[in-house]
Amino acid sequence: MDGDLGDFLRTRRARIQPAEVGLPSYGRRRVPGLRREEVAQLAGVSVDYYVRLEQDRGPRVSDAVLDSIARVLRLDETEHAHLLRVARPPKKAERRSGAPRVRPGVQLLLDSMERTPAFVTGPAMDTLAWNALADAVHGFGRMAPGRRNLVRQLFLEPGGRDFYPDWAAYAAQSVANLRLSAGAHPDDRAVRDLVGELSLKSEDFRRLWADHQVRACMHGVIRLRHPVAGLLTLPFESLTLPETPEQTIVVYTPEPGSETAERLALLGSWATAH
Asked: What is the largest CA-CA distance in the chain?
């Protein structure tokens, strides 16, 4: 997306204090963190070269230069990979017509997990397929096709803050994951449309998006306050499909015999009855 490289570099250098990299911090600074010329000096490139890089008008930059800048800005592994992608965007992929399709075999895999909520998401975190228990948890089947999106639910849907007890932390993680996906799929229309919609309609989203945090969200624990089942504490694992890497299977994995597992079993029975 336009401006991603420059904005990302500016936000990363703003968090590094001069003393952290062995530079004197005397004198009044107009901007937080490191100056452009300081990053250039520490990375071993000319100031003009670095300025052009931040302004997205530099030449194709080498791995060695990007690695050096990543070292100066103390980027972690995920941030470093994101820098490489936004500095050298992949060639535009051929646009696919129609909605993304999930292979029938993947749907059968989801359906076979009768006691485990599982669903498939795309680059914009749109929900593309799900099993019965995931539907009972999230209500995907009751949503209009264009609104089956976990990030949109967080920021725009009524009751989103109540459904996610740890809303602030989960919102920050979701935006950081969406930012990472946007860097990996810069020409994905669904990602662009979602970011545009949320930027217009949600001040919270605009603030988090402008921070340029990038974090993968492939496993962890999420808490949901379900209107029927009550509080659910759900560990999850995310698995990227090898032949369709833009699609990810998300599986909730509560410990067998736990209170959440028992509540999910009751929720599944309730959903079948209704």
From this structure: 70
Answer whether 120's CB lies under 8 Å from 109's CB.
no
Task: State phi, psi for 76 to the nearest 5 degrees.
Answer: -80, 180
Q: What is the pLDDT along the chain (274 residues), one digit of tens a residue?
A: 556 888 999 999 999 988 888 887 666 677 788 989 999 999 999 999 999 888 877 667 888 999 999 999 999 999 999 999 888 876 665 455 456 789 999 999 999 998 999 999 999 999 999 999 999 999 999 988 888 999 999 999 888 899 999 999 999 999 999 999 998 888 889 999 999 999 999 999 999 999 999 998 899 999 999 999 999 999 999 999 988 989 999 999 999 999 999 999 999 998 887 6
CA distance 155 to 171: 8
80 near 86, Cβ under 8 Å?
A: no
**What is the rounded distance in angstroms from the CA atom of residue 3 to the CA atom of residue 204?**
20
The alpha carbon dihedral of 153, 233, 120, 269 has a sign of: negative
SS3 assignment, position 122: coil
* CA atoms of 131 and 86, how far apart (whole Å): 35
User: What distance in Å separates the CA atoms of residue 84 and residue 79, rounded to the nearest whole number?
Assistant: 9
How many whole angstroms from its chain centre is CA 227? 26
Distance CA 260, CA 4 (A): 40
> Whole-model pTM?
0.86
